Amino acid sequence: MPGAAALIADRTLQKITTLFWGTCSGSDQPFSLLIAAVGARSIAYHRQCIAVSRWCRESLVFVYVETRRRPHWHWATLLIVTVCVLCFVVLTLTPPLQRIALLLEWGTVPANIFHAHEPLLPQLTDPALLRLFTALFIHVTWLHLLSNLLFLVIFGLPGERTLGSLRFLLLFVVGGIVANLIGAMSLAGVHLPIIGCSGAVSAVVGTYVALFPRARLGLVLPLGLYLEFVRVPAFLLIGLWVLLQLLFSYVGPSYGAYVWWAHIGGFLFGLVFALVSRDAIARRLRG
What we know:
mainly alpha; two-stranded antiparallel sheet; globular
């Protein structure tokens, strides 16, 4: 750009010199006519300079100056969905006895993590707490898996665009661990496993509510023979999410009352996460 500007200035000086001397030298016209000719030619050349300047602003400048943020690929939601589906397929293909053993080994079994008659703080350093993380990706029924992944995609995709992929993944993992921890602490001594990412999805929903309290989400719904795109208030979908969790609470021993406090804890964690991260999110959106 500096070289182009210098070239334009040099050519401008040459044209002005040629214009003046070509008009004045060897002419026997009155001086007033010479001045008028020079003025007319100067006006025409001034208009050419304006056109060149406008072209520089509209072409050269926007070639070298980036005025829009580059789009980023959001990978966290896709990664979570892929891992959950792969784990479900592996469990489905596993024989029943081995499947139960895997659930007890990698699910969050409160009796194996917390003992009601021992101090709590020493138990928080037990390596068995890793199962609070691994349990997030275990589902034993397709209905449980699809309901979690459906709401994860609905609330997770816009949330990930706002938070960024790394911060969103942190929200999912830490929110799910906290939710499972709350569930395990409330059910110390129970030998049935806490499984699934419902607590983590509750954390995502809580963060979404805090960031977009009046948002409307776009959904594609089958209406008759056609697919219709509709915008639904976010709180209506959250109410549907709560009803599904209440339904799962009475389905059977795979869920029972074990998930309810975990869901509440995950939702509250999501609210707090959004409030704590508010300034960082604002800085990220400003670029």
